[in-house]
């Protein structure tokens, strides 16, 4: 029997800035589920932002789902395939994109995990450690989607296309 | 026809900094300014909150250097809980905090060098923009790129072990620290699987320094003449004059090395430092009161620290410090690009300090917290990666913060960054018909040397990529480039 793929779910953002904490909140919820279900092939991690060392982190996995808040005009969430990209690093920016991390992983560590970005729509960004009500709803909707693709073992590619 | 060039960022949320460069009809640079156009009033936000929350609350400021804010706030609150002004903690409390701080400096400086600056040195500031980044390094010099990634990771792991977690670390608390290092953690950092161990980090730090020294030798004229201007320099130094990134007294020297702030107690910083507000920027302009607004501005950060310190208390970094100081015959170094040289000496120093601290048994046992007579007010200073960081709090009878003042490193470097932009713009753009990407990058290179964090400086959420726009006298956009 083929071994299960090693999966990393990686949420990022600053929970001290309201809805920017959606990534970390998502991971906190999945952590409860992983513990309850005794899921062994899913690892979880969080940070304020993605950075170059994450290329090394993701090199140990087969599949990676990045989870981040967004202000982009999407519905409650979006789930898109991450295409490795070496798009130019922005001036003095101290963070990088999922596409950049995957590309760096490929070039430095000769591994390219399949990667997706789960974007959760956020609305408020003030100095407060509390999600807005709308963001909480979006979190719940996105979690349902996540459990569906994991439980039903659907082909993720089918879902996002 | 006169022109205005604007370098403006695109941010995830609102707010940003931008650079405007005004060019007259003859192509001469008339004026250039780094504008900061957003403000979030963090000092007002913390008012009314219980003081003990501050070390965690301040991490909301920014995801780039939360550890520096965490420690500066904790140091200010040490004073409030009666634990002294930075050197009164238990040995375990102080050493754990130092380990956290050196981990922060190590990873932040490594990120800056390998990710943001090295591409300019490897490929030239006029190199192909498509490859002038760490991916370009990965393709042409993968060993160097891997080192950058792993050095950053090592520092982050030190932070995780000392602060407790990556996000909203809780390690430093008023009066001390809330945990010891475990033996397993200590052994992993000291003897861990290659390359993630302290010896390798020291070795790679030396390699990065050699890389820069090689670049400098080959490009001495360019480096020495790029955005070179005299300034005052300010930082903490240990009481005996040693470089100390965690604690000390406040010292400033002028461009010739004369002391103009004589190792004063930073609890009284507001006796010596004033902040000027200018109408075109939300970022304040600090200056030394005695020297006045015009002459009292100063630089902070790696370049400044190696100008104020008399020596470095770790052997390998001290040897490099002596070579570095000989370049300017012991006088202060005012070369903008040699900030990178100074930064890499600090990387080596941090690696040495991490290795030394990890061998100290006080990290594994001993009292964590000390408290004494409560005070109403406290100031915490730390040498953050980008420079001196000030946190100042006053509390009321209900233990709530009633006043907070933060002067962040990037704010301290406000005037020098403006000077740097002006000098480079004049050198690169005067008389030019077309503003090219390399010219824009030259402006960015000058600012980048200071490793600014506008997110902190304006207390905003966001990133700070820049956009450069060329505008004619009628405010019509002639050209725009985004980086």
Second CATH tier, the architecture of the largest domain in chain B: Orthogonal Bundle
The CATH superfamily of chain A turns out to be: HybD-like
Helix segment tally of chain A? 5
Rg of chain B, Cα atoms, Å: 22 Å
Provide mean pLDDT of chain A, rounded. 86
Strand coverage percent of chain B: 15-25%
Strand order of the largest sheet of chain A: 2-1-3-5-4
**How many runs of DSSP E, i.e. beta strands of chain A?**
5
| Count of the separate structural domains of chain B | 2
User: How large a portion of the residues of chain A is in β-strands, by DSSP E?
Assistant: 15-25%
Helix content of chain A: 25-40%
CATH architecture annotation of chain A: 3-Layer(aba) Sandwich
- From the alpha-carbon coordinates, what is the Rg of chain A to the nearest angstrom? 15 Å
For the sheet with most strands of chain A, the description reads:
5 strands, mixed
- Please write the string of helix (H) and strand (E) elements of chain A: EHEHEEHEHH
Helices and strands of chain B: which structural class?
A: alpha+beta
């Amino acid at each position: 029997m083929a071994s299960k793929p090693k999966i990393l779910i990686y949420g990022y953002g600053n929970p001290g800035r309201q809805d920017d904490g959606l990534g970390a909140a998502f991971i906190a919820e999945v952590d409860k589920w992983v513990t309850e279900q005794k899921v062994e092939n899913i690892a979880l991690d969080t940070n304020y932002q993605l950075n170059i060392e994450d290329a090394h982190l993701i090199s140990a996995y087969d599949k990676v789902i990045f989870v981040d808040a967004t202000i982009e005009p999407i519905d409650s969430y979006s789930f898109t395939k991450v295409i490795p990209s070496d798009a130019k690093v922005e001036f003095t920016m101290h963070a990088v994109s999922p596409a950049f991390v995957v590309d760096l992983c490929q070039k430095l560590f000769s591994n390219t995990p399949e990667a997706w970005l789960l974007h959760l729509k956020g609305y408020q960004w003030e100095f407060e450690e509390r999600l807005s009500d709308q963001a909480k709803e979006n979190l719940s909707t996105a979690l349902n989607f996540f459990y569906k693709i994991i439980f039903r073992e659907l082909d993720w590619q089918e879902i996002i296309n | 026809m006169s022109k205005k060039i604007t370098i403006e960022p695109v941010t995830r949320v609102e707010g940003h900094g931008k650079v405007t460069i005004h060019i007259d009809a003859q192509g001469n640079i008339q004026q250039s300014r780094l504008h900061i156009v957003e403000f979030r009033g963090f000092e007002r936000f913390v008012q009314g909150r219980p003081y003990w929350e501050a070390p965690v609350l301040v991490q909301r400021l920014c995801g780039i250097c939360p550890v520096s804010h965490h420690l500066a706030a904790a140091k200010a609150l040490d004073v409030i809980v009666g634990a002294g002004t930075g050197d009164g903690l238990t040995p375990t409390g102080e050493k754990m905090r130092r380990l956290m701080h050196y981990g922060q400096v190590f990873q932040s400086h490594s990120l800056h060098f390998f990710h943001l600056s090295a591409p300019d040195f490897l490929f030239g500031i006029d190199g192909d923009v498509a490859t002038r980044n760490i991916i370009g390094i990965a393709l042409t010099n993968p060993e160097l790129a891997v080192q950058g990634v792993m050095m950053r990771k090592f520092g982050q792991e030190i932070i995780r072990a000392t602060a407790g977690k990556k996000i909203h670390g809780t390690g430093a608390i008023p009066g001390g620290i809330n945990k010891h290092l475990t033996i397993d953690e200590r052994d992993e950092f000291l003897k861990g699987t290659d390359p993630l161990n302290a010896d390798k980090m020291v070795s790679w730090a030396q390699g990065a320094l050699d890389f820069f020294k090689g670049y400098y030798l080959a490009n001495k004229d360019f480096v020495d003449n790029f955005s070179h201007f005299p300034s005052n320099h300010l930082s903490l130094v240990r009481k005996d004059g040693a470089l100390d990134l965690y604690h000390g007294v406040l010292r400033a020297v002028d461009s010739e090395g004369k002391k103009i702030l004589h190792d004063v107690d930073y609890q009284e910083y507001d006796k010596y430092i004033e902040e000027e507000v200018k109408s075109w920027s939300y970022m304040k302009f600090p200056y030394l009161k005695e020297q006045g607004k015009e002459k009292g501005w100063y630089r902070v950060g790696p370049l400044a620290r190696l100008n104020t310190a008399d020596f470095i208390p770790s052997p390998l970094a001290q040897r490099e410090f002596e070579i570095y100081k000989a370049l300017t015959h012991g006088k202060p170094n005012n070369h903008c690009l040699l900030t990178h040289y100074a930064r890499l000496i600090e990387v080596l120093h941090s690696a040495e300090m991490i290795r030394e601290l990890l061998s100290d048994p006080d990290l594994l046992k001993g009292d964590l917290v000390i408290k004494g007579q409560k005070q109403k007010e406290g100031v915490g200073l730390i040498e953050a990666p980008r420079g001196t960081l000030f946190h100042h709090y006053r509390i009321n009878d209900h233990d709530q913060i009633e006043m907070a003042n933060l002067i962040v490193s990037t704010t301290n470097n406000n005037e020098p960054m403006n000077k740097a932009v002006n000098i480079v713009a004049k050198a690169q753009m005067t008389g030019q018909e077309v503003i090219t990407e390399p010219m824009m990058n030259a402006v960015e290179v000058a600012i980048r040397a200071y490793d600014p964090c506008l997110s902190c400086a304006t207390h905003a959420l966001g990133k700070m990529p820049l956009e450069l726009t060329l505008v004619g006298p009628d405010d019509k956009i002639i050209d725009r480039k985004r980086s």
